[in-house]
Amino acid sequence: MNTQQPDWALASPQRIEQALEATQRRGTGGWFALEFSERAPTDPKRYQVDGHELVMWRSEGELVVSPAACPHMGADLATGRVCRGKLVCPWHGLALPARGRTGWRPYPVHDDGQLVWVQMPAGDEALPRPILVERPTRRISAGHQLDLACDPQDVIANRLDPWHGAHLHPHSFSQLAVVDGDDEAFGLDVEVKVGWSLTTRARVTFHCPTARSIVMSIVDGVGKGSVLETHATPIAPGRTRVLETMSATSDHPLFRPLSSSGLFRRVLRQRLVARARRLWVEDAEYAERRCLLRGRKTAHRPPLASPQDEPVGLPYPI
Hints:
The structure is a single chain. By secondary structure, the protein is of the alpha+beta class. The chain has 2 domains: 178 residues, 2-Layer Sandwich (Alpha-D-Glucose-1,6-Bisphosphate, Chain A, domain 4); 89 residues, Rieske Iron-sulfur Protein (3-layer Sandwich), CATH 2.102.10. Helix content is 21%, strand content 35%. The chain has 6 helices and 16 strands. The strands form 4 sheets. Strands 10-16-15-14-13-12-11 form a 7-stranded antiparallel sheet. A 3-stranded antiparallel sheet has the order 1-9-8, with no helix packed on it. Strands 2-3-4 form a 3-stranded antiparallel sheet, with no helix packed on it. α3 packs across α6. The longest helix is centred in the last third of the chain and has 34 residues. The two termini are 26 Å apart.
């Protein structure tokens, strides 16, 4: 007789919320993931982070992130140009140096090789560098981003609910089971669909280094040592940019020679990004729905049934 509780019973809203609250107490050092390193622009490019308008540009090859409003009359500097290492305002030609000037100062920037980070005033203690995770030395990296109508906490909450995986993503997972965990991290046994009727198994762990990031690490099985980082950067209230970076590796003896092939790296990157984007089709709906419900103050409702009951005729999804 199967005594395993159904996923809807295991996915306790209180349990997920408790884990989320624990993550939201973690510091970020004031650092926000802004762009992928390989996509960092040469010409001025506009960004928005936590309600602030920013412009990224290069001065003598060095990345600079500064306020997008010209200190003279507020022109959008993202529509300006760089000349001799200075950002030139499109309205009146004011040339702004990378070191800044009175009333206009660039923000600290850090390029970790896969992501560009910017440090801005935040509610927690500032750190000299962003809080990073260890990535495999020999890896194939890929990344993608998307904008969602939700807040960063909704992105993190989605990842803290592993019980939705086999139901919301039946194209990718046939089974997921939490094997251990607490408010700091949890482990998961995953059965992944790899095509047709083929599946493969892996054990993964999830942990949140900061309040706006969650990391999945493959600790056993195919792809052991690989890391998936999900970073949620607020654009404005109710709007979030998700930047995901994947560091794929393997202990298979063929991985080392294959990883040197440009064709293999290109194909693997395309497959990694395609799979991640497909998952986010459903996960975006989850995160945005959670944000909507929270706004209506209906996100936290008492349990409708005990774990022994069948979820039949429920007035709303759980």
